[in-house]
């Protein structure tokens, strides 16, 4: 167990990294340093640095529902988060069509959406079943041009919404700096520095070496590098629990007048297709994406993020077929928006585990290394509290159940039921161009 005066080195300034720093500092740790590969903090291409992220408690796993409920209560603290969090409500779609004569409740036992609904009810969330197209449309402002929604059913969770991800991350970075953390940017970690344990039984991480030759020593290293984890440390055994995947995102730019109709909309999340869409932002942008298994980008047999930092503007391009899927799904919710050109796209890179559970784990055989990663596309909403789990692990306070749940060595037989499909290699010869964004 690390002591309060031990030097803790955290790799990364994304969701896991800064939340861990925050919770360690709150508990009295005095020597916290975060290293960030980007010259700019937060990194422009970090998954945690975006215009919005869904904040929902709608999970089929009761742990995440309860932990999200706690996070939402923290997001509501205006002194801490300002206007980073917007409680627009979340419409959860994905309930299958009821069979003739059956109730929606009877047909949905065991489904992801049904279990999410049951968990939301159990934790006291303000939820309403939307069993008819009229009921679904009533979840939107009457002035919003919504599709017929004839083939869809779902529910509205009023206790949720979205967060301005970049704004929230910047606030926490500023907070940990004020609390005494040292943040050093422009430090691309290249290797772990290890020493032989005195009894000769193995090695312990005692720091890191960066690409510029600088070295940082520490009593404990916490790797929170997100989707850059596998490519930074290809020699580590991640037991199949870490895979960098690119997720497809697109935006529509509206005029101030057009934006008025979409300002008060809920977040919409369809677990059948993975499609989700946000209300319009203060800059009149509507963002949508597909929560899927995503694309890999193999370099030396390791999936590596392809972003605006590594590949310029072309690092933002998504496959043309996914552009078509996004427009089609968009038309099923907001048909008038589907008739507009896309203004931009992005590949958002996650570090995925097969079962969707995070990796918050001591690395086997190395007392100096902890992994805090594997966000699997659903970590940002927990920015206020996810670091408490890492701090618990560092202080040997994490429950045995959660140690097993988040272990890097856990069995990998379970699938992430919130996503469908099979991971594909990113087709570089089929990426969209600016002309493809037009109708």
Automatic annotation (TrEMBL):
InterPro entries: FAD-dep_OxRdtase, FAD/NAD-bd_sf, MTOX. Residues 7-393 form the FAD dependent oxidoreductase domain. This is Nucleotide-binding domain-containing protein. Belongs to the MSOX/MTOX family. Pfam families: DAO. It comes from Coprinellus micaceus (Glistening ink-cap mushroom). The keyword Kinase does not apply. The lineage of its organism: Eukaryota, Fungi, Dikarya, Basidiomycota, Agaricomycotina. GO terms for molecular function: flavin adenine dinucleotide binding; L-pipecolate oxidase activity; proline dehydrogenase activity; sarcosine oxidase activity. The keyword Glycoprotein does not apply. Its cofactor is FAD. Keywords: FAD, Flavoprotein, Oxidoreductase.
